[in-house]
Amino acid sequence: MTVLRSALDTTAPEYAANREAMLAKLDALEAEHAKALAGGGEKYLARHRGRGRLLARERVELLLDPDTPFLELSPLAAWGSDYTVGASLVTGIGVVEGVECLVTANDPTVRGGASNPWTLKKALRANEIARANRLPLISLVESGGADLPSQKEIFIPGGALFRDLTRLSEAGIPTIAVVFGNSTAGGAYVPGMSDHVIMVDRGAKVFLGGPPLVRMATGEEADDEELGGAGMHARVSGLADHFAMDEPDALRQARRVVARLNRPKAHPAPGAADVRPPRHDEDELLGVVPGDLKVPFDPREVIARIVDDSDFDEFKPLYGTSLTTGWATLHGYPVGILANARGVLFSQESQKAAQFIQLANQRDIPLLFLHNTTGYMVGTEYEQGGIIKHGAMMINAVSNSRVPHLSVLMGASYGAGHYGMCGRAYDPRFLFAWPSAKSAVMGSQQLAGVLSIVMRESAAARGKPYDEEGDAALRAMVEQQIEAESLPVFLSGRLYDDGVIDPRDTRTVLGMCLSAVHTAPVAGARGGYGVFRM
């Protein structure tokens, strides 16, 4: 039997403590998500509604098929910055007329939907996901353009937004712009470079230069409607393909455009009979990860609660036991799983991972990386044993793998172990974190200790006494800084992941991601790994 048995004792005090700590983190996370939902605040929400307009998430909801989920991406973008949490943009994956689409929606209650540096990064990440997974891109537009005080960080890299639209179209990936309000200056190129354009009467305003700029540049007096209204673009310029009477009508027309796209998935979705729920309760995932990440936990307890029927065929279970590898299905889709068992990666784990990744590529099976690693092992014995070569072998395999990768940070994700387990720099199709996760070059205490040792040795080399009080203060400051910068909300705010999720939602989130990646062909690398140092 390959069905995983659970050894998790849900009556143990340790489980209760882990669960309580996770629930506290989830409460804090919910408070941060609420900031994104609040947009520009009550004043600007009321003003927007007073104009008879829908909010960004209301537009998304009307666009999507009824009673279907929306996987919102990067909801904490800009957290910890001077900009509003959420970066005045909603992005995510949802189903429209049975077709999975990447949807973006400007939040006009935040500075008129103006784009700041984090808006740009979030939008570019959405475009990247659309392209990698061949998802039609639907842009729900109402934006005043660039946030001018931060233009120095937006103008030059911002051109990539328009480049992406043309490249998506060239790749045969449909792009649809639904314009509700302003889409001015550079923003006019969003509808200008989209395959399909819908504009709302007396709402949409699309022009390179508004009336004040035209008056200043040419002396011409012109009003909004004749310069860039929906009626003009539908009847005169031809920029609008569809003329909508109001916002619900525009969203109805967008749904009809998608219905006519003729977009079959590259791989048919698994049948209902092929999807069996886990045998163990997903709610129990709240108590799996210890509050102290130095305490190891068995990732099989996680695997047993996310894969179909808790059925897991383990690969090399007696070799390299700090890394669990094996095969399963998740919502009917085949996956190969790599999960850290005891944190540290040794030479055996690295070699095991490289072989497993090659096998997944031979079989065209996506890979799921479940992170809880402090990195590759250090020390004389391990250096002499070739840990650098073997760690490089694992990273080489990850780097050159061609099957889709999904990553979930459950606990620690430190140092080069973060790289070997397909961290952000290694282009996973999707990367999510649990509220318990931490990621940095190393743990805060380790990093502070290393700095202390280096400074102590430097003082000794100069023949000077070492300031112990200053050392203690420095260590405390560094520990506090690194601890804060390794937390998931901080990292998610910088778009180093695609969102911080409730552990109980992991199976659902991964199922939606696997469905999205199978919109595009799934094919592994056939050779082409570069030189493995043996």
UniProtKB/TrEMBL annotation:
Domain CoA carboxyltransferase C-terminal as annotated: residue spans: 277-524
Every copy of the CoA carboxyltransferase N-terminal domain together lies at: 22-273
Instruction: Indicate whether tRNA processing appears among the record's keywords.
Output: no
In its keyword annotation, does this UniProt entry include Zinc? no
Q: Which Pfam families match?
A: Carboxyl_trans
User: From the UniProt record, which GO molecular function terms apply?
Assistant: ligase activity; transferase activity
The transmembrane segments are none
The alphabetical list of record keywords is: Transferase
Protein name per the record = Acetyl-CoA carboxylase, carboxyltransferase component
Organism (species):
Streptomyces pini
Q: What is the lineage of its organism?
A: Bacteria, Bacillati, Actinomycetota, Actinomycetes, Kitasatosporales
